[in-house]
Amino acid sequence: MGIDRTALSLSYLTATLIGAAFQPLIGKASDRWNARVVMAVIAIGFAIVLVGLSFAHELFGLTFGYIGVRMAGQGALSLTVVTAVSRAIDHRRGLALGIASAIGSTGISLAPVALERLITAVGPAQTWRWEALAVIVVAMPAILFVRSTGRREYTTGNSCDPDIEDDTGTSVDTDSAQVADVRPLTDWTLSQARRTGMFWVLAAAVASSSMLSTGLAFHQIAVLGGQGLSPAEAAANFIPQTIAALLATLLIGALIDSMNPKIFIIFSMATTSAALLMLPLISPGWTAITYGLILGAAGGCLRGMEGATFARYYGVTNIGAIRGLATAISLGASALGPYAMALGTDLTGSFALPAALLAVIPIGIATVTVFTSQPRHHDPLVTG
Q1: Is residue 339 classed exposed, middle or buried when 0-12, 13-18 and 19+ CB atoms within 10 A define those classes?
Q2: Cα 156 to chain center, whole Å?
Q3: I want to staple 276 with a disulfide (CB 3.0 to 4.6 A). Which of 191, 199, 342, 359 is the partner?
Q4: pTM here?
Q5: Chain-centre distance of CA 20, in angstroms?
Q6: Ramachandran assignment for 161, one of left (phi > 0), alpha (psi -120 to 50 degrees), beta (any other)
């Protein structure tokens, strides 16, 4: 289309911010309305957007299409899927969400490799249309298996208060191995949840991971090409990222039901920083593979724990609204990553310095996580 890297990144930024603004409304809709209907409407809308993108030939049309893709695809459809799984499963919820996230992250990571070949075979326009067909063929039958319910009161397998009493009056520590069998006394509202420090820690961790991993993925061919990798080698780096993300998501999903989520937040932030800082050290071969494994593990760790952790701390009655706000923040942040990397490269001539400066963000979040207490309903800020 003759669009330079910075203009393309700015288009992505603008469209994603607009798409992110709708996520709280979509979250509330998933709390209130029939889950099947909400997901079906989103999937059909997503497919229509993809068909529309096949007719985009300039920056305005591309930006308009980006709005729909970010709002319906990575935003709304992902949000409603996690909400549906959180409500349908209360025992070993973390493992269930880990499996769902692992399948999703595998698709995201492998898509560039498959789509590059499809673009070569049939061209960009037809590729968009094949993607629309894939959404309908995959998503619509899967929606039939979703529990057909609207909003109601849910009992969950995780407590929304770190220290509660069970039915016998015994105090229960939700960080113990028995956490998966604890029933919450009261689910949180969005207003209550956003008054807790842990909500903002979780939102910031997911947002920073989304921002930085998207920035690296968006420019991956250029980033790794600057370190001596060919375009094919740079694209192939998605494979170790996929393997690491898949394993990390499944492992953390299995562990999150019985361990303190703060451990995994800190690990994810540390590995994200490590991936950014090692960019100047990458060369063809093992260092590139190591980079891919570290970056994949960082994202997979967070995907394996965040859905279960929101449900664990805040219950699931209003989980759509609560995660809707967090998703809006995450999507908005993901828009900044590609633009920050592109602008920083324009100013410095390489990706290394911008990446090193951005690595400060996850380090700061990891530090704040250490000192943030778990949410309690009786905290003054929540009840006041």
Answers
A1: buried
A2: 22
A3: 359
A4: 0.74
A5: 13
A6: beta
How far apart are alpha carbons 311 and 93 in whole angstroms?
9
Is the distance from CB of 199 to CB of 193 less than 8 angstroms?
yes
pLDDT in tens, 57-109: 888 888 888 888 888 887 788 888 877 777 777 777 778 877 887 787 777 76
Q: Measured between alpha carbons, how far is residue 133 from residues 45, 72, 115, 197, 312 in Å?
A: 12, 15, 14, 42, 36
- Pick from 326, 378, 370: nearest CA to 86: 326
CA distance 375 to 207: 20
63 DSSP assignment: H
* Residue 268 near residue 209 (C-beta atoms within 8 A): yes
- The number of beta carbons lying within 10 Å of the beta carbon of residue 357 is 13
* Distance separating alpha carbons of residues 85 and 301, to the nearest angstrom: 18
Q: How do residues 336-378 score in pLDDT, each as one tens digit?
A: 888 888 888 888 888 889 999 999 999 999 999 999 988 876 6
Contact 39, 88 (CB under 8 A): no
CB 111 within 8 A of CB 22: no
3-state secondary structure of 173: strand
Q: Which residues of 77-114 are buried (b: 16+ CB within 10 A; e: fewer)?
A: bbbbbbbbbbbbbbebbbbbbbbbbbebbbebbeeeee
164 - beta bridge partners? 172
Question: DSSP class of residue 359?
Answer: T
Question: CA-to-CA distance for 265 and 231, rounded, in angstroms?
Answer: 33
